[in-house]
Amino acid sequence: MANTLYCYHCRIYHPKEEMRQIETKGGKRWRCIKSIEATKRGMEAREAFGRQTTDINKAEAQSKARLVLNAEK
Ligand SMILES: [Zn+2]
User: Fold this and answer.
1) Which residue of 20, 27, 41, 63 has the fewest C-beta atoms within 10 A of its own C-beta?
2) What is the pTM of this model?
3) How far is the CA of 48 from the centre of ligand 1 (A)?
4) CB–CB of 16/2 below 8 Å?
């Protein structure tokens, strides 16, 4: 276990070269690159989803606006 570090995210030991030390509210902790990357990807996916939802809302608002215009005719 000489070259392993405890990953607070996975709660298991990983090889040291797969680990990064990061600052958390509780102080410095070791976390594996894999979990950091996974979180980053997850955040990007959420952002992409948010953008998609915004586009849908925009399209909906536009179609509603068109309906209002048609109703006024
Ligand atoms: Zn890990």
Assistant:
1) 27
2) 0.64
3) 25
4) no
